[in-house]
Amino acid sequence: MSSVLQSFQAGFPVFLIWTGTAGALFILAATIYVLLTPWKELALVRGGNATAGLALAGAFIGLAIPLASCLASSVSLLDLILWGVVALILQLLAYRLTDLLLRDLPKRIQDDEAGAAIVLISTKLASAMLLAAGLWDPALQRF
């Protein structure tokens, strides 16, 4: 039992640092996402706009998936930060591309049109899964 406690004692601070770093990257990216979108998601959600809530939830999940892949496959904290930033930038670009395809996306979200949110969510999740797979390093064989 003492080896288990020693392992926990040695590993827990590393866990906190790595997970805290990933959490900070997520918060930074989520903040940038909220600032980039022309509609005010939180205000719309507070006002009862379910479409804005769906779009925001999809964005958050889409940001977390590739970051989780980075967390699982990084070999150092710097590796996590570098690839995490790359993944999060690419996810933010995925939003912009969707916005270009659906030129009236902000208005459609504000008007509570679920179809626009569904397209945005599917784009975010699809790009997140592709990024997560691309970030996986087969040499690490962690998955």
Summarize this structure as a short list of keywords or feature phrases.
single chain; transmembrane; 143 residues; membrane; mainly alpha
Outline the structure in words.
This protein is mostly helical. The protein has one domain. Helix content is about 85%, strand content about 0%. It is built from six helices and no strands. It has helices spanning about 1-35, 40-45, 50-75, 75-100, 105-110, 115-135. The radius of gyration is 18 Å and the shape is elongated. The chain starts with a helix and ends in an 8-residue tail after the last helix.
Question: How confident overall, as mean pLDDT?
Answer: 87
Number of strands: 0
Radius of gyration: 18 Å
Summed up, the helix count is: 6
Helix content: over 70%
Distance between the termini: 28 Å
For this structure, the quaternary state is single chain
Principal-axis shape equals elongated
Which structural class matches the secondary elements? mainly alpha
Outline the biggest β-sheet.
Answer: none
Low-confidence runs of at least 5 consecutive residues: none
- Domain module count: 1
Helix-strand topology string: HHHHHH
Report the portion of residues in β strands.
Answer: under 5%
